[in-house]
Structures are given as structure tokens and as C-alpha cells.
Amino acid sequence: MLTQIISAGFGGQGVLLLGQLIAYAGLKEGYDVSWLPSYGPEMRGGTANCSVVVSDEEVGSPVVTQADIVVVMNRPSFEKYEKNVAKGGKLFVNSSLIDLKSTRDDIEVYYVPVNKLADDLGNGRVANMVMLGAVLEKTHVVSPVTAIDCLRASFGERKANLIPINERALEAGAEAVR
Amino acid sequence: MAVVFEKTKMLTDVPFHYCPGCTHGIAHRLVAEAVEELGMQDKAIGIAPVGCAVFAYNYFNCDMMEAAHGRAPAVATGIKRVHPDKLVFSYQGDGDLASIGTAEIVHAAARGEKVTTIFINNAIYGMTGGQMAPTSLEGQVTTTSPYGRKREHCGLPIRMSELIATLDGACYVERVSLHDVPNIIKAKNAIKKAMKYQMEGKGFTFIEVLSTCPTNWGKTPVEALKWLKENMIPYYPLGVVKEEV
Amino acid sequence: MAKKLMKGSEAIGEAAIQAGCRFFFGYPITPQNEIPEYMSRRLPQEGGVFLQAESEVAAINMVYGAGGSGARVMTSSSSPGISLKQEGISYIACAEIPCLICNMMRVGPGLGGIQPAQGDYFQATKGGGHGDYHLVVLAPSTVQEAANMVMEGFDIADTYRIPVMLLGDGMIGQIMEPVEFADYKKRELPPKTWAATGWDDKTRERAVINSLYIEPEQMKVVSERLLKRYALIKERETQVELYNTEDADYIIAAYGTTARIAKSAINKARQMGIKVGLIRPKTVWPFPDEAFSKAADTAKAFITIEMSTGQMVEDVRLAVNGKKPVEFFGTLGGFVPSTEDILEQIIKLKEAHE
Asked: What number of C-beta contacts closer than 8 Å exist between A and C?
């Protein structure tokens, strides 16, 4: 198994964390993983992105150009990364902020209004987790249970109260693409 | 037979290479005696500069390091951070300290590194052959200021002691001179006091020592001492610039 | 100990601490700031000292002081900052002071950019500063290897009294990967009786840490001593990874980040039936000449792949020594080659030398 992922959006939309959670969960499930962020002024200009690789063999290239999964949280990311979805791959579009439709017919595209769904849950900041829920539902790259475990470990005691809302966000995202 | 005088054990028996009449030899002995009288010979680590005193590691009879040009305060920092209980001193000339090593000396002082810097100011580059130093006086003729140092061309000499004294990390700054015996005694006391403050953890200590360079000044040793007194001291006033301990 | 997901820079810092490094002197520069930041957080917890110097020049001279007085010490920087450190590195090499210097390369020359590159290969492997000397240069290709090499690097430095450089790039510093800190087993190391620690032990000579040898006879002695040591290091410390080379018609030469991407391309090429392998120098100095000259007996052609205009390729050509053609492919500007880029080069190489 080799899954290559790109997660992109505005800085602050949680796209790096989304990728990190997949990497943490992948490691926990026994895979080799890598997480590579863009860095420097690019981050300030608009789009932040990261490449994640989950593999049952040693990860070779951590640079992803032909992705099995691409998550785009804003319009510039859609425009930049739609072409990086490998043939037969999956593109996840935040339709709350992106009104474009993909013109590609060789990939699967999911339009998920993650900001709206997060707002409906009463916390706009979990939009990235709604998106992660959709991604995990359609790709099974890692299990949502593992992802929440990893989030719990990273939150610690102090932010444990935020776990339920994140669980609901994952579920809302999954539900939206079922 | 009664022994009435002994050379300090803090100096090796290697003969100094300094020119006749140069005051480096006196300065070395003062530093060495100060270390010995404080009982710190076995706990001292010195840093030699690049310049006439580059071979200081051959003369001071303690563990020594030779630094790149101007970097002695950074080297001293590295040593002292590893060995806070040791006496660490750097011995630097005016080109080394006040020109190429300005950043290092300013920041070591600003950090309040608990080290002692002996700054030999003879208003000229000695080793390289008498070029203009940042401390050369206005009008002073050197091999790179053959028409005399001109203010409008390269500014006026830097008073390092006054500059260092502005930094909160420096606890003791004094300017001394080696042009006569009373001043030599004062110089020794200042060096000793600086090292004492260092070991008490008071902060950065800095002793500027006005010195002669008869060879590159083109003077006899006696003329050089007179020149120092008449020309350098008016511009570089002697005394404690700062003592906040 | 369980595997932990860690940023390369932080793994480098943690490995240094676990190897007993308690002194770090550095100056901020992208893309390696996470190393000093990590050290500033962790070293005080371990009773060590992190100090942000006023410049790279000062930082390397603090390393000289700390290393010369016996401490296990490191600094890190990225390309322009490493240039500034070169004066000090040359002195350290001549004064025979062990230390670890990290260079997380960014693209240049000049201020260049902050994206990953491998343009400092010449500087790292051919000395770097003035004079006639070498560093041991370790080139990790994963975070785990970077951590291991940091630990080993300190031991190599202490064994041979030589500065060791960890030559990574912006990507190795920024990437997160699983890393496990194996129990660090320190080599048997000679006591540092040469260090300037204060001369209270009169059974040893007075310590003089120095790089000045005015008499040609004395300087010659030092150079000959270094030369002998370099030969010993070449014999004992050369490290290389061979990947799918046994039956390979075509050999890729690559190190660091580029090498791991080459592996992905090799896997794809093998699926297409192209017999291609990788020779990956893990020490870029000493350079694993033998691996190349041996492979040159059986392989049809070589290609060196770097994020530069072509630097390591010169060492590969020296090692192959005209036996087989050695081509070159480089990415510039801070671009990292993709698996597809390298696959394309493999196919071209095969077509040209079938």
C-alpha cells in the first residue's frame, strides 16, 4: 500500500494539521509515513500545503506530485493542485469557499461544504476535521478512531474537552459523502 | 643568599619576541603576576589574539588558546560557558579588538560574559607593519595614512573603554598606561581587580592598556613613552570609566 | 523506545542531546531555525547551555572555545551562514578540535532562496575554508538517519579530533518522519588530555590550542599528521548504501534527499523491467570511490542526480575513471526532483546506452 496525499488551503485553515493527523495515525497503524510542509514566505502569501505519504514499505520520495488524495480548502489551492491528482485519484473540494467544478473525468471529486457543516456544529474551527472525516470515509487511508486517538494524545488533559466536537466533525464529514 | 626577586611562574622561560622598548612585555608580566597573585595559575585559560601578541600562548604559563583575528571574546565565551569556575582572559590589540573584532567584544560585554579582556592600545597595527589602527590619532602618520589620519576621510579614533562602559553587562572598565612606574603599578592593580571581579561573577571586565610601539612609531623607546604621555593620554583619559559591582 | 513522529530539525537536536552534547552556539537562519529553537528549549532542562551568538562568525568561534576546552559541542546553520563560519571551521580543523556542524542547505549562490538544494557539496567536501583540510561529511537521507548520524558524528569527531559536518538540506530539516532514538552506544573514546581546561593536572603538558605554525617544518608536521588521519578515516569510516545494484545495468548516484526520491523512481523503473540501482554515499567525504569503480565493471552507464548544477558528479567521474559514461541531471532554483523527473532520466539513460 502506498498512499500519497496533498493537503492545501489558506494558512490557518488547519491543512497542515489535517495532514499531520493522517501521518500520526498512519504511524500508529504500523505504516511508514512522511509529512512535508511547504515553508517560508509562501506560507504567508496565501496557500499552505503539505505532502503526506503513508506506505507499508519505507517511504521513498516524500515529495508528492501524483497524489492519490488531494484536499483543497480554498480556491487558489484548487487551481494549483487539481492537476496533481493521479488518474483514478480522489479530489476533495471545500465547496463552502470554492465555487469551481472540476473538469477532469478521470478522477473522483467530492464537494464538501466543510465550513457550513462546521458552523452547523457550532464551531467553525473544526472545518478541517469535517474534511478529514470525508477523506477517511472515502479512502480508508487510516481509521477515524486512530485519528481521534492521535488528536487526544496531542491535546492532552488540558484540551480533552475539545475531543467530542472533533469526533462530531469527523462524523459530519463522513456523513456528507456517504 | 636571600632571594629578593623572582620572575612570576605564570610566565614561561621562552624569550619574548617583542621589539626593544615595546610595552607588550610589561603588560604580559602584569597579567601573569595578577593571575599568580590571585592563586589562579592552575585555573586560568587565556586566549591569544592575532597581532603582535599572537605568540602569547608561548609566554603565559597556563592553558592557552589562539583565536582567529578579532574572535577572542567569542572563544572566551565558549570556554567560560563550559568552565564557569575557571579564570578566562583574552589579550587583544587594537586592530584585533577595535576593528575586525568589534562585534565580538561588544556582544561579549553586552552579555556580561564573566571574562577579563586586556586591551592593548598602541594606536597602530604592529605585526603587519605600522598600518593605521581604529585607535590611531588624528593626524598620525602610518603606512596606510601617509598624509596623517584625516577626520573627514576615516573619522576619529574609537575610545573603546567609553564604548564598552555603556553596556550594562560590563561591570568594570578602566584605562591605564604603561608610560611610567606609578602608572604600571596602577595598571597591575586594575588587571588584578578585574580578574577578581570576574571570579566573583560580577560581569564583564575590561582593562585598556595604553602602550607604545617604538618600531612603527619611528621613535626610540624613551621618545615613545613621552609620545604616549603627551599625545595619547589627552585623547584617551586614564582612570576608572566604570565600576559597578 | 517507540517510534515518534518528529521534524528533522528537532530530531537532530534531540539526537545531539542524547549523545551528550550540552553546548550549542548558533545564529538564526531559515530553513534550520527549528534546531536552535529546539536546543534553546531542551538544553537548559539538561543542565546545558544554548547561546544565540551575535553572528555565525562568533558562533563558530564559541564552538572553537568550547570544543577546545573539552566540551561536546555543536552549531547549525544554512548555506550563507555556513559560508560565514568557514574561517572558524578552517581554524578548528587545523587546531584539531572535535565538533559537529550542521548545514541544512538552501539554494544559492548569494542570498539565494530558502528552498532545499545541494549546492554546498564542493564547499563541504573539499575543505570549505582556506587551507588544506577536510571535514568528515555525513549526508542523511531520512530523519532517522539524520538522528543516527548526529550521534555517530560526535563520536567520529572525538575519535579523530576532526570537525564533522552533517550535510542535510531544507527538506530534511522540515520533514516529519518516524524516528526512534536507539540506545546510544558511545564508542571507546580517547580522553581529551589535549584540551585547555586549566592546568591543574601537571602530569599532562600545558595545553595550547593553536593553528599557527610559522615555521614551515612545524606546519609540515601538522599537515602530514592530518593527511595520515584522513587516510585512516577513509579506510574506517566510509559509508555507502547500495540499492538494487547487484544486477544493475544503470546506476544512479545520489545522496541525501535526492537519493530517497531516486529509490522511488528505481522501484517504478524496475516494474518497467529496467535494471537500475542506486549508489548512495552516506559519507560524501570520505567519498566511497570503491563502490563506484566496482560498479563500473558491470554497469553500462551512470547518472548523477543532484539539486545543483553538478558537483558530486565530479567525484563520481573520478571514481568511475572513464570506464563508463557518467551523465548528470540537476534541479535548480530550490526545486526538488520528483519521482517522475528521475524516472524520465532513467529511461533516457537506458535509451542512450542500451
From this structure: 67
The string of DSSP letters for C296-307 reads: HHH-SEEEEEES
DSSP C84-136: HHHHHHHHHHHHT--EEEEEEEB--STT--SSB--TTHHHHHS-SSSSS---E
Which of B64, B76, B107 comes nearest C208 by C-beta? B64
CB atoms within 10 A of CB C260: 27
In this structure, are C109 and C138 located in the same domain? yes
Q: Give the mutation candidate from C177, C258, C276 for the A interface (greatest A CB count, under 10 A).
A: C177
C279 with C293, same domain? yes
Q: Using a CB-CB distance cutoff of 8 angstroms, which residues of chain C are in contact with residue B67?
A: 61, 64-65
Q: Please check whether residue B206 lies inside any domain of the structure.
A: yes
Asked if the structure places residue B38 within a domain, the reply is yes
* Whether residue C279 sits in one domain with residue C206: no
Does the structure's ipTM exceed the value 0.90?
Answer: yes
Is the same domain home to C180 and C250?
no
Let me know if residue B211 belongs to a domain.
yes
| CB-based contact A27 C339, cutoff 8 Å | no
CA distance C28 to C80: 11
Q: Which domain holds residue C304?
A: 240-353
- Quote the crossing angle between the two packed helices A127-139 and A15-28, to the nearest 10°: 40
**What CATH number should be reported for the domain holding residue C325?**
3.40.50.920
**What top-level class would CATH report for the domain A2-177?**
alpha beta
B12 in a structural domain: no
The domain limits of chain A are 2-177
Q: What is the CATH number of the domain that holds B119?
A: 3.40.50.970
| Distance of residue C53 Cα from the nearest chain B Cα, in angstroms | 8
pLDDT tens string for chain C (354 positions)?
589 999 999 999 999 999 999 999 999 999 999 999 999 999 999 999 999 999 999 999 999 999 999 999 999 999 999 999 999 999 999 999 999 999 999 999 999 999 999 999 999 999 999 999 999 999 999 999 999 999 999 999 999 999 999 999 999 999 999 999 978 899 999 999 999 999 999 999 999 999 999 999 999 999 999 999 999 999 999 999 999 999 999 999 999 999 999 999 999 999 999 999 999 999 999 999 999 999 999 999 999 999 999 999 999 999 999 999 999 999 999 999 999 999 999 999 999 998
Instruction: Compute CA distances C29 → A126, C32, C115, whole Å.
Output: 33, 6, 12
* Cβ within 8 Å, pair B64-C196: yes
Q: How many domains does chain C have?
A: 2
C210 contacts in B (CB within 8 Å)? 57, 64-66
Model confidence pLDDT, tens digit, residues A146-167: 999 999 999 999 999 999 999 9
Burial class (CB in 10 A: 0-12, 13-18, 19+), C302: buried
pTM: 0.95
Let me know if chains A and B touch, i.e. at least 3 Cβ pairs under 8 angstroms: no
pLDDT digits (tens, 9 = 90+) for A66-104: 999 999 999 999 999 999 999 999 999 999 999 999 999
